[in-house]
Specification:
2 domains; alpha/beta; Rossmann fold; elongated; 39% helix; L-fucose Isomerase, Chain A, domain 2; 471 residues; single chain
Length: 471
Amino acid sequence: MVNEKITLGVIFGNRDFFPDGLITEGRAQLLGVLDELGIGYVVLDPQTTPLGAVETWEHAKACAALFRQHADRIAGILVSLPNFGDEKGVAEAIKLSGLRVPILVQAFPDDLDKFNLERRRDAFCGKISVCNNLYQYGYPFSVTEQHTVYPNTDAFKADLRKFVAVCRVVKGLPNARLGAVGARPNAFNTTRYSEKLLQAFGISVQTIDLSVVLGRAARLEDGDPKVQAKLDAIRAYVSTENVPPPAVVKQAKLGVVIEDWMDELDIDATAIQCWDSLQHNYGVNVCTLMSMMSQKLMPSACEVDITGTASMYALSLASGKPSALVDWNNNYGDDPDKCVLFHCGNWAHDFFDEVKMANAEILATTLGTENTYGTVAGRTPAGPFGYARITTDDRHGRIKAYVGDGEFVDDPLDTFGSRAVVRVPRLQELMRYVCKNGFEHHAAMTTAHVADVLAEAFETYFGWETYYHRA
């Protein structure tokens, strides 16, 4: 789903007393941009309705029938107004289609030297009318940053990329199948969640007891072809130079069992118990396997943090990049806008310049070094930092979230594990919000700025209370 090509249903609005040439030119320009950006589209052809546009009730019915025919492909609707357009035609076409997908409304600008009858558009006004009708009909929708904008501009291409990302989140998250491997650690009330609230939204949670996973892994032979293939994949993914070979083999067996279970149930992302049952009962950390899954855009979170997994999946859908689960872990000296992000070590490979397999040094102090091999150790270099957290607010029976953007920075940091230093403008304000509103100490992150995408998806299309911490 994360890498799936997005297809849009396109509606060109028209009013017949405006010049036909405006529709013909606008259609060619807009569809050319969609082709350029690799976005699929379903649109009326000029043989079905005049100019392939929508104006009348008959046109609306024809457009709706076409959209219904391709409903399984259409992830969003793009309404384009080369002229004023017909507000009812657009709204009726969407209503009759039966689609409930994100909608983006774009309008062409007028040129000051072309206010004659042959070139005047009035789409500036028409867009307001179309949006008014969408509001009346109860359809949530998005608009371009500039009220009117030509399709072949960088500004609109940015609008379109954002909208496609919104469509991916809106299509993918409510249909996500998340896997919970084991029970949450007893000490972690913070990773509680409401499975029923998630299911009411559309997210289903599949469970498997950790004893089942460990039992299946124990029955696998070292020479099993699947185990050997997973072993090769682990060694190709990360250096295991200083790790005892039996610990790597144990991880390979775990990987085979978890992957088979995910394939059987079509699971998109996981949350795994790890601490401290795996160390006590199996003798490894599962971090490297989680890192490998996250790298393949199948996010995996620690401590059975299912809403953390949902946050990771949302970020990957929005960015097309791997995501990771982090602790908001340490202050960075006396700088109020910087902090240290940390976890034992399950971040995807893309978060590091250099990476190696190691042991969980903090857990090793109580569980033994020999039982904690399997972490991924590395430092995230400077670059864009996007973060998000979804949670089920069980006391109020709702799902809520916060999102924001910042920067990874290269400031000195002498420690171990998966780690990063980040700068977030007004970080103290964000931390106050996190604490006062009952959010977890875990957050999800990615190497892209996508807070605007998630805010649009969560607020406009999901109706979630969402705090957007703007940089």
